[in-house]
Amino acid sequence: MGRFEPYLDAEDLSACVEAGDSPASLDARARPLGCTFPLWLDPRQPFGDLFTSVRATPRGFRYGSVGDNVLGLDWRLPNGVELRLGGRVVKNVTGFDFIRFLNAGGRRFGAPLRLVLRLRPLAEAELNLRLRAPSGAGPEGWDALQRAARLVRGGSWAHSLDACDLHATAQGAFLHLSFRAQAALLPLFQAEAEGWARGCGLDCDTAAEAPDGQAHPWARAKAPLDDCIGLARDWVLTHGGGVHAFLGQGVLQLQDPVGPEAMLETALRELHARLGAQGGHVEHPSLVPDPDAPQARWQAELLRRLEAVA
Amino acid sequence: MPLNPRFLERCRRLLGSGHVLDSPAALTAYDSDGMTHGHHRPEAVVLPGSCDELRQLLDWARGEDFPSTLRGAGTGLSGGAVAAQGGLLIHLSRLKRIVSIDPLNLVAEVEPGVVHGALNKALEPHGLFFPPDPSSGFASTLGGNVAENAGGIRCFKYGVTANYVLGLEVMTPAGDVVRLGGPAGGLGPALGADWKALFTGSEGLLGTFLRIWLRLKPLPEAARTFLATYASLEDASAAIVDLVHHPLIPVAAELMDPNCVRLVEASPFRAGMDPASWALLAEINGPRSLVDACAPDLEASLRARGATSLRQTADPDERQKLWKARKVGGGLPGQVSPDIMVQDAVIPRTRLAEVLADIYRESEAEGIPVINLFHAGDGNLHPNFMFDSRIPGQAEAVHRLGRRLMEKVVSVGGTLSGEHGIGSDKMEYLPLLFSPADLAAQAAVCNTFNPDSRLNPGKLLPQRRFRRPHPQPQGEGHGAL
Fold this sequence. Notes:
The complex is a heterodimer.
Chain A: E1 7-9, E2 14-18, H1 23-30, E3 35-36, H2 47-53, H3 60-63, E4 70-76, E5 82-86, H4 98-102, E6 111-118, E7 120-121, E8 125-132, H5 139-154, E9 163-169, E10 172-181, H6 186-200, E11 203-207, E12 219-222, H7 228-239, E13 242-246, E14 251-255, H8 261-276, E15 281-283, H9 294-307
Helix pairs in contact in A: 5-6
Chain B: H1 5-15, E1 20-21, H2 24-27, E2 44-46, H3 51-62, E3 68-71, E4 88-91, E5 98-102, E6 107-110, H4 116-123, E7 128-129, H5 142-148, H6 155-158, E8 165-171, E9 177-181, H7 195-199, E10 208-215, E11 217-218, E12 222-230, H8 233-244, E13 252-256, H9 258-265, E14 278-286, H10 288-304, E15 309-313, H11 316-336, E16 339-342, E17 345-346, H12 352-366, E18 370-374, E19 380-381, E20 383-387, H13 394-411, H14 430-433, H15 436-449
Parallel strand pairs in B: 2-4, 3-4
Antiparallel strand pairs in B: 1-2, 5-6, 6-10, 7-11, 8-9, 8-10, 12-14, 12-15, 13-14, 13-18, 16-20, 17-19, 18-20
């Protein structure tokens, strides 16, 4: 079987792009054909770099991780051998799932040459809403955001929303909700969201577009879903900077904290230990994989065996 | 090598004699899984009652030179949960504890033998559900679902099992017991690569699941089911492509061919479909206001492709009746044919009409009736080839049909399996899809964890062959394909 050739199939909703291609470039080709790559990724970065460095994004609330939206890969191993992984169809259990394994794993196992992406139909319209605590709300404002997040995540609209994110800084925090559908359906969502806001004591306003996705945060944390808002509050109030949390995926992107680097790294290590006990983690250059863990042995052994692939 | 009698004696002391089976009568039940052709009898079956017992068994087995195979409910359709090279079969059905349900974090922690349907029943009072829904969900275990990366009808909207695995506690063939992720769904304290992604869908080759953490979803407030019938495959295929482009993303888009519709309509589960038609079953769900607002648009979309009849319902009993008709459609071919071969392949959705036409043409040429009912929204085909292996040449004809189907599927850009796995059934087709280097990379993963092939040999990839101590059974009416 040969390697993938670049294509865009608007009818079947998939496209093969070169690793150097960018989301902006794909979108320019796909939108006129009525489809789009649904995840928010830094539009100017190459897909190859995004695949090896980013797992969770805004809009993952509905569409999952980057790995969930990559159907196939042409992959070059460190020894130069090229592999075909996955395919171009939306369900595939033929062989081990290299794609989710390699997503956001850096380039220790090699690098992508081409990616086959799952596209989605372009929605007619989009509504972005912000739910925020009234100024001066204090700690009660965070509690109100937590209540609202639980309503969104645990309710029926969770099946249809594109994004449910938290944006927090020392100056304030808001939930960003995004819904894409036919224009006639947007008022239904607006009425529901305004109801959530009223019930939780929050203000609701419309945003022109989705906020920046912060594709290159200072650190990332993976936490249980319901801990995200509390962790964001604690981090912002203790260390300043900002937090962009994807509340459907339990991912916090920590941005521009203030304070001595050593102190911040100590705080990260403590957070990593706390989250690690629940199967979560923190990603930051100061935190390296445990060399004594079985996983380190597996990695060395798998790399050795892949090096022998001719 | 035959099983060591002293090993079995230790097993009896650990588990109780009722949970160690080695009589021919008891072993017969384990000859096959849901793929009933081709029999592989284990030399013994053990049923651990706790994860501690399972770990102890695996520790002991590591000191012996016989293969071990893991089995959940044995409902798989690729010959994955059978002792293809004899040895010990470890039946995990007693490990059926739902350890916890966490509604705020939308997580369930379960043992591998929990039945899929039992989890969803336990989740209902919490207003939650586990979205993947293999047709065997009433019996199949979550350990088996994760091992095969099971799919099902709702995959169109919700994706496959891999989308919902937050963590696994695994025991590798080398004896490592490692927690990969957990309720938070991350990498855990060790960091490094996301190994749980490799273990999910690994068909029991990389290790044994001791504990599983799964992501849950809130139950939708409302759902509406649509049944549309079409006079031709082309019209039905066009309607499916329209559904794929619907921005609300339907939960499901299932197609039954006229052969299947006729069977269903002749059964007690008839749903009032025109027996000569192609039947398309679709569903939308979500908040009631959204579902109600979208229903006219979806109905118009289905009608626009020439539906000969269309009905929609939000009534739970009526919806259940329609879905029952779809589900029994998968079982009825097995009731009217001595043997059946259910294939599984995925193609680009725009090629449905072309590939199905090919299947009917090839089946007719071989004289083997075929029934198609499948997950059309995902392009996931399930042709049911009906045959009688007692008639000389029929088993061989079905094998030829399987190979030609896979050749066709690969030629249009498809893949060999969407949800059943490769198992022992499809290993021979892998070179259609993969180069020698691609296959070597797959083998590198297997050999990293399972270098002497003692865990589940004879599945997915060519591996070491164990010498079998006894001749294998030949079940009456079932020939090896």
